[in-house]
Amino acid sequence: MANYIIRRTVSGMLTLLAISFVLFAILDLAPGDPTANLPPTIPPEVRLQIRESLGFNEPFPTRYTRWLRQFLWHEPLNILEETTGIVIGDSAARTRILSWQTRGPVIDLIIERIPQTLWVLGTAFILGILIAIPVGVISAYRQYSLFDQIGTLVAMIGYSVPTFFTGLLMIIIFSVQLGWFPSFYDTTHKVTNWASFVVQVKQMVMPVLVLAFFNAASLSRFTRSAVLDNLNQDYVCTARSKGIGEQSVVLIHILRNSLIPVVTLIALQLPSVFAGSIITEQIFRVNGIGQLLITAIQGADIPTVQTLTSIYAVLIVFFNLIADIVYGILDPHITYS
Hints:
With 337 residues, this protein is mainly alpha-helical. It folds into two domains: 2-93, no CATH class; 106-330, MetI-like fold, CATH 1.10.3720. 75% of the residues lie in helices and 0% in strands. The protein contains eleven helices and no strands. It starts with a helix and ends in a 7-residue tail after the last helix. The relative contact order is 0.13.
């Protein structure tokens, strides 16, 4: 297992290097100028000095190498120093990845937005799993029943309808028509008492339900298929012939083996939830990472876009590794050589 983790980690790092190079090259070719948003009264020579100070006039290999060193070494050390107080090397000599829009470090902007994104996306992701797995198991166990047919219909609708349509529909019904929930997410709201907690829950209900509904739709169908594949296997018949209760057969034998492919989908869905939140955060005005990416794209803030897309790539590779490790926990027959 340890050798496998080391090999996968090394291959994952090489994959991330290749992805970061492609992303940096594509975005570097995109039109954009760090001085584009400056007032027109600034003299040309000052604009030239700003471009030179940001390294914009340097050759591509130099800029990519510097960004990679900042992303993989300087920024993690700064985060470690700010969170734990541990200082490694000369912190004053470290260069930061600077946003062209705010002229501040990109990582600081991301850290400011992470709590809002995790509040909404984390709750939606967990809720989606808690809904999808029981629905998938029951649908498979009661195949072609009314519950299964309704679950299939709802899942098809949830998977086919985009989140921007679902979000707008919920705003029209529950905010405009019924007035139950606010139509936008107030990121400045702080929870200090029970009343403020109720307000926080109300403003989280619609974005959480939109994302949870979309995630649970595909996961429930995948869980149903996995359970059906194991429902009539020989080991299930053997367990039943031994007099084991039906609930134990389903929960211990069938569900455990069925979760092996489901874990893959969950691990792959988690990074996509961050990417999928871009639209949802725009609809409900959640001041999170998704909205930061949209703002950076609209403002041609290339360093911010490069950093965010690279973080998404890191999440995908990392959770793929986690999925492979969980395989061995769920199924002892899996060996790593």
